[in-house]
Structure formats: structure tokens, C-alpha cells
User: What shape does this take?
Amino acid sequence: MTTAAVRPVAIKTEAEIKDRVKRLATARHRMPHWITREAISRYVEREEERESFLQDGIKAWDEYQTTGLHVTAAEADAWLAKLEAGEDVVPPATHV
Assistant: This one.
């Protein structure tokens, strides 16, 4: 991250949270600002991953609704068991 890309942001929070951030910063030998930035960054990354996962699920459901192609739970379980056992196997073929 370049200095030019950094912009100040004001965050209103409860005094208890502010105190907890200060205590954690002291324990970690960091500034409260660093703890806050790290927390926001990790939250945004986690939520972006969750959103991507959700969108992948919606896309898969829409595709299933359109094509009807699927594998059964038993077929998926058998494939996953082989992968877990270290076998290099291809996923089961989809069917209607």
C-alpha cells in the first residue's frame, strides 16, 4: 500500500471497544491505529470471501435449475473418500 493510497477514516465506537483495542495494542507492542486497520482489513477480506462463496452457490443453483445436471450425495461422498485416501480421481460425471 502506498502512502498516497492511504486516507483517514473516522470511526465512532463505544468506549469499551476503544479501551480493548488500546489494551490489545499495548500487549502486542503495536499502535491502536495498527490494530484497528488490521481488524478492518481482515473483516473485509473475510466478508469478500463469504460473498464470493455465496455468489458461487447462487450460480451453481441457477445452473442446476437450468440444466438439471447434478451428482448425488452418495456419488460425491464416494469421490471425496477416494480423494481423502490419496487416490487421484476425477469428479463423478453429472447427470439428470
